Amino acid sequence: MEWSFGLEAAARSLSVATPGAWISHVTAAILRCQLLPPWLSDSEELHLSKPRALPEVRRKGIIGHTVLAWEDEVESADGIRISTPPRTWLDLARRLSLPELVCMGDELVRIPRFGLEGRSEPFATIDGLRSMVNRHPNLQGIVRARAALDLMRVGSDSGQETLLRLAICDAGLPEPELQLPLRPERPGSPTADLGYRRRRLAVQYDGAHHLLPAQIHSDRRRDKAFEAAGWTVLVLTNEDLADGFADATAKIKRILRTAYLSPSSAAGFSSPT
């Protein structure tokens, strides 16, 4: 587990000095390297949650919370009592916007790649998160958490991919498939971040790490494989994110409309509005 050293030291001291309480909210998210929006990712706030049976937190510089938490929503990690990643997501429902909360949730439920991350199980499932949400009907932010659950999907590998999917749906376009393999029957087939198989449209979001020479070469091979199979490949970058994917969704709409008008692909797919 990779933690911020300064924040970890402060959290450890606070945890030891306050038996029965636990590190939570933004502090827990940063220590666990959970996905946060840029405006919050460098926060140095120290959040401490406690059950109602303990006295109110009155330590200078500490943001205290008196909450109801189930036993499986708090754990010990490297000697620090801390909220679990799913509970941290729920605690932040009040503070994050709906798209930000969906991004954080998508990260929890994505299927990890064992070779890259050393784990094969997600941090949570949508059903598991829904069960946790149902335990806390009176928690502040619970309405937003429920709305986020309805928008979360398994398959987004980054917050940018989640925001792109949400922008596509907000534009009135059909919801795309995620992690779309070119040839599903072949292990190791090139994959699109999202797209539309019937329209043979592959959409790739290439973030900063895609600028590395080895990754550029891999991306080119991936895109050429889709193009050789007759697909249209649309590659988006951080520049597209800057305008909320407005231009990108307009391009996708034009491509889908053109594909819909093509006689070879018109059957079985609604025309985008």
Question: Can you describe this structure in just a few lines?
Answer:
The chain is α/β, with parallel strands linked by helices and 273 residues long. The protein has eleven helices and nine strands.
Q: Mind explaining what this structure looks like?
A:
By secondary structure, this protein is an alpha/beta fold. The protein has two domains: 147 residues, no CATH class; 107 residues, VSR Endonuclease (Endonuclease, Chain A, 3-Layer(aba) Sandwich). The chain has eleven helices and nine strands. It has a four-stranded mixed sheet, sandwiched between helices. A three-stranded mixed sheet has the order 1-2-3. The protein is elongated and about 70 Å long.
Biggest sheet details: 4 strands, mixed
Count of structural domains: 2
Helix-residue proportion:
40-55%
Radius of gyration: 21 Å
The parts where pLDDT drops under 50 for at least 5 residues are none
Which term fits the overall shape? Answer: elongated
Q: Tell me the span between the first and last alpha carbons.
A: 46 Å
Number of extended strands: 9
H/E order of the elements? HEHEEEEHHHHHHEEEHEHH
| Order of adjacent strands in the largest pleated sheet | 6-7-8-9
Tell me what portion of residues adopts beta-strand conformation: 15-25%
Q: Average pLDDT, to the nearest integer?
A: 90
Tally of individual helices:
11
Quickly give the structural class. Answer: alpha/beta
Describe this protein with a few key phrases.
Endonuclease, Chain A, 273 residues, 41% helix, 2 domains, alpha/beta, three-stranded mixed beta sheet, four-stranded mixed beta sheet
